[in-house]
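## retry 2 of 3
previous attempt timed out at serialization; input unchanged, resubmitting
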Amino acid sequence: MELDTMLEQAAAQCAKRGAQLTPLRRQVLRLVLEAEQPVGAYALLDQLKAQRAGAAPPTVYRALDFLLEQGLIHKLERLNAFTPCIEAGHDHGAHSHPHQFLICRRCGTTTELTDHAAAHALEAAAARAGFRVERMTVELEGLCAACAKP
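## retry succeeded, writing output
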């Protein structure tokens, strides 16, 4: 899907929820979408400063918080970085789908999966322990297919 179309869908999704994808938020989302790998807040800030001289860390963090709340991006805790949500635009509610991320420790490639069977297995295990899952993000670290080749 074309980047501008993705941004328009994101704006429409926000508007449907009574939120606004401001020019700054749109710009940060564009940078996350354009990144080839998960990108950190300070790398986003550096890119943003080239276009907005007054950009500061709180500016970027507020925009990222908004994008997370709207279900447009994910935060990868392991990498302290952000990546687009593959389910964005489907309007299931903010991140109601299960997330599993495959993170290559060699090249940094990150792939998002939505494996409902894995999510159900984890929910069942949690329920047996008396725990009710409200949100699920699983990060698996290893080698991608290209890096695992001998």
